[in-house]
Amino acid sequence: MNYSALKDIFPGASTKELKIDVDPDWTQFNPSISFGPEGYRCIIRSSNYSMNDLGQYLTHDPHNVIRTKNYIATLDSELDIVDVQPIKSCKWGPIKYTQVRGLEDARLYWANDHWQVYGNLREHRIDGLPTIVTARLDHDALVDPEIYENFDRVQKNWSNLEGSRDFIYLCNPAAVMRNGITYEERPWILSEDSKEFRGGSQAIRYEDFYVSVIHQVDWETGHRRYFHRFCMFNNNGYLMEFTPPFYFVFDEVLTDVPMIEYAAGLVTHGGDFIASLGFKDSRAFLARVPISQVLSAMRPANR
After folding, report:
1. CA 231, CA 196: separation in Å to the nearest integer?
2. What pLDDT sits at residue 303?
3. pLDDT mean values, one per 10 residues, the chain (303 residues)
4. pLDDT for position 205
5. Is residue 146 within 8 Å of residue 135, measured between CB atoms?
6. Strands in 7-92 per DSSP E
7. How many CB atoms lie within 10 A of CB 6?
8. Which positions ≥6 away from 224 have C-beta within 8 Å?
């Protein structure tokens, strides 16, 4: 798979690392930045496992349980963190699967008059199959939890259509979850590789369309490598255009070492898109990319 460094496609791009104090002393990764009337907020995930150079997960728990704790960070106008609070989890129901606990890869967005969070949960099913769940964020606590239909499939990578309860489910075929309940699919003649596009960030409103960051997985080295694209969607949530593939963070030399990245948030900031992402499930970054360069790099999805 041919993909490029972020700055090779977007010369004006830059990245900066986000760091917070976490307790216990776990990793911090997969941040989800969002914007609302209260300003910029960011959820940052912290977990008790690490990843080795082969992309294998090492759980640091006497009972071999993967645990996740989430933090809500307040950012100032320069996107520097000025306050961090641990998020108090809600009760999702009886614990049926004990090996993975907590809300994973939580994404944040503003919904009418409040902050809303969605992510994937495994503890509520005997088989541990991930399911999309959502809850309202009341200051530093999750309330009003809701578990969406699983369809007995892995559900991890939905993209919320900003300002609604609709989610982009797939790019090709075009599939949207209306109100998180009704599955709507229609034929959509697109390039073959878009069948492998999977959600990452929310789909935010920009002018008269939506923009998100998606990911694809490359197995050519025998290990997972993630790469990304900015994508443009119409008002129905159907893919229209996308950029060439890229990776965000340069890690010495790209050899057989897996590049695990996951973009879970997107906002505008001045003339830039700001994508928030995790790197190797251990670090958190913000990537600043000029909007003009993103739009110039877009190509029709039906080529």
Report:
1. 13
2. 59
3. 88 96 96 97 97 81 95 98 98 97 97 95 97 97 96 94 94 92 86 89 97 92 87 96 90 56 97 96 96 97 76
4. 97
5. yes
6. 14-18, 29-36, 39-47, 49-51, 57-59, 66-75, 81-86
7. 20
8. 55, 217, 218, 258, 260
Residues 284 and 261: their CA atoms lie apart, in Å, by 10
Tokens encoding 46: 């912290």
Q: What is the amino acid identity at position 78?
A: E
The phi, psi pair for 16, rounded to 5°, reads -145, 145
CA–CA distance, 230 with 240 (Å, rounded to integer): 11
Beta bridge partners of 42: 33, 73
Measured CA distances, 93 to 9, 68, 144, 234 (Å) = 45, 17, 12, 36
168/175 Cα distance (integer angstroms)? 6
pTM of this prediction exceeds 0.85: yes
* Phi, then psi, of 23 in degrees rounded to 5: -140, 115
Where do we find the tokens 């928030």? Answer: 276
How far apart (Å, rounded) are the C-alpha atoms in residues 85 and 141?
10
C-alpha closest to that of 1 among 229, 275, 250 = 229
Q: Read out DSSP for 258-272?
A: ---EEEEEEEEETTE
The residues near 180 (Cβ < 8 Å, ≥ 6 apart) are 132, 134, 146, 148, 165, 166, 167
| CA–CA gap between residue 281 and residue 104 (Å, rounded) | 12
Residues 120/135, Cβ–Cβ less than 8 Å: no
Report yes or no: 90 and 63 within 8 Å, Cβ to Cβ: no
Look at residue 240 in the predicted model and tell me its pLDDT: 95
Amino acid at 163: G
Which residues, at least 6 apart from 261, have a Cβ–Cβ distance to it below 8 Å? 215, 226, 227, 228, 247, 248, 249, 277, 278, 279, 280
**pLDDT confidence of residue 263:** 97
Radius of gyration of the chain (CA): 18
CB atoms within 10 A of CB 49: 18
Q: How many helices (H) and strands (E) does the chain have?
A: 2, 26
